[in-house]
């Protein structure tokens, strides 16, 4: 039983779909499936075709989203970036952009582990400096902090409408509500193996019309920094657009056929459910048990219902022992990854096929007994 915050357990149909032979990557059978995947992703991102946005599906994991930001949204290399850090994954994104793309990244971190972003400080920073990009992690999987992306994005827009808003939604797409168009977001990246319920291997993202314009702008700046080829959206956009449009497929590089076929099934299954509400109620139920019945403390600060709905991060006195005991009855949960508290807590995934109330009760009961 897999109860970690990604990769998650998939349904039988999603897994069976992986075992098919390849289809012609530019042929009508695969193109039809890829088109449906893109249209279904629009529903999950809440973004219309008319907005001029484009969903993207590339071979890779969630981390590829970091490189998509670094190699496409900072074309001059001189952009000013503001990164709102709420845990380990925000810090990883910072490392990527700062160390590997040599970008100018200012970081505003939550004051306490498990806490959110100080709005007053953010406001001051936005008044003082104009940032080209503001980046945030929707759910930081190390702390369970759920950022109010709508509010943060609104605040950034009110001070600096030109700033592009980038969101790491690897652990939120498919379990939290995301309103790409309404919230005025510009680039949101995720992955196949968390709340979307598909196997690992796909980087899934969406880009706004104005960010696309930046990406596709002709440049003859000889000083522009070198950027990788495979992550170049300039190369990918015409291909993905052709899949969404239908008709003749524009080839850039071969998509992972089987993974996209299985994602198609996973998205259809997800869209048949009320996934945001389901995650919310299951998460609230589990956390109330943990806090009220078991008298344990959550890593995430603030009211339970405002913490991430795809995982629970819980302080326990003996994390490795709890994990070992659960492994003994074939249940995998995750340990801590936030460097400041790594050995002090466990993380229980609330996404995927196995994350049923019944299975979660087994975890809690085992801990209590
Ligand atoms: C899992 C995760 C990542 C990394 O995704 P990979 O698929 O492991 O590369 C990045 N950000 C967040 C918030 C995550 O939960």
Automatic annotation (TrEMBL):
GO annotations of cellular component type: peroxisome
Positions where N6-(pyridoxal phosphate)lysine occurs in the chain: 194
Protein's recorded name: alanine--glyoxylate transaminase
Similarity comment: family membership: Belongs to the class-V pyridoxal-phosphate-dependent aminotransferase family.
Enzyme Commission number(s): 2.6.1.44
Domain Aminotransferase class V per the UniProt entry, residue ranges: 60-358
Keywords: Aminotransferase, Pyridoxal phosphate, Transferase
Needed cofactors: pyridoxal 5'-phosphate
Keyword Transferase (UniProt): yes
UniProt cross-references to SUPFAM superfamilies, sorted A to Z: PLP-dependent transferases
Entries under Gene3D superfamilies matching the protein: Aspartate Aminotransferase, domain 1, Type I PLP-dependent aspartate aminotransferase-like (Major domain)
Keyword tRNA processing carried by entry: no
Pfam families: Aminotran_5 (PF00266)
GO molecular function, one term: L-serine-pyruvate transaminase activity
InterPro entries linked to this entry: Aminotrans_V_dom, Aminotrans_V_PyrdxlP_BS, PyrdxlP-dep_Trfase, PyrdxlP-dep_Trfase_major, PyrdxlP-dep_Trfase_small, SP_NH2Trfase/AEP_transaminase
Lineage: Eukaryota, Fungi, Dikarya, Ascomycota, Saccharomycotina
Single Gene Ontology BP annotation: glycine biosynthetic process, by transamination of glyoxylate
Binding site for substrate: 347
């Amino acid at each position: 039983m897999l109860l970690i915050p990604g990769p998650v357990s998939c349904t039988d149909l999603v897994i069976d779909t992986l075992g098919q032979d390849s289809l012609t990557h530019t042929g009508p059978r695969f193109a039809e499936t890829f088109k449906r995947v893109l249209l279904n992703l629009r529903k999950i991102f809440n973004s219309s075709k008319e907005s001029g946005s484009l969903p993207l599906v590339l071979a890779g994991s969630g981390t590829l989203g970091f490189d998509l930001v670094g190699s496409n949204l900072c074309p001059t290399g001189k952009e000013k970036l503001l990164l709102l850090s709420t845990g380990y994954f925000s810090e990883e994104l910072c490392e990527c952009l700062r160390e590997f793309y040599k970008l100018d990244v200012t970081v505003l971190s939550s004051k306490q582990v498990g806490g959110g972003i100080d709005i007053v400080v953010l406001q001051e920073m936005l008044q003082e400096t104009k940032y080209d990009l503001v980046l945030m992690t929707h759910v930081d999987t190390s702390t369970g902090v759920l950022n109010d992306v709508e509010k943060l994005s609104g605040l950034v827009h009110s001070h600096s409408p030109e700033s592009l808003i980038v969101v790491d939604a690897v652990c939120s797409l498919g379990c939290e509500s995301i309103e790409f168009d309404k919230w005025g977001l510009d680039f949101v990246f995720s992955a196949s193996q968390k709340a979307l319920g598909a196997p690992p291997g796909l980087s899934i993202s969406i880009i706004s019309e104005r960010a696309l314009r930046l990406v596709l702008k002709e440049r003859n700046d000889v000083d522009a920094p070198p950027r990788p080829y495979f992550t170049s959206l300039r190369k990918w956009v015409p291909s993905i657009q052709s899949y969404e449009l239908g008709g003749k497929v524009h080839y850039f590089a071969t998509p992972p056929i089987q993974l996209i076929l299985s994602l198609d099934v996973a998205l259809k299954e997800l869209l048949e459910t009320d996934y945001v509400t389901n995650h919310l109620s299951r998460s609230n139920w589990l956390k109330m048990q943990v806090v009220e019945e078991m008298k344990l403390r959550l890593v995430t600060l603030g009211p339970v219902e405002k913490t991430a709905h795809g995982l629970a991060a819980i302080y326990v006195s003996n994390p490795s022992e709890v994990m070992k005991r659960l492994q003994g009855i074939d249940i995998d949960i995750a340990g801590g990854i936030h460097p400041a508290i790594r050995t002090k807590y466990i993380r229980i995934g609330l996404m995927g096929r196995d994350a049923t109330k019944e299975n979660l009760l087994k975890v809690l009961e085992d801990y209590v007994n």
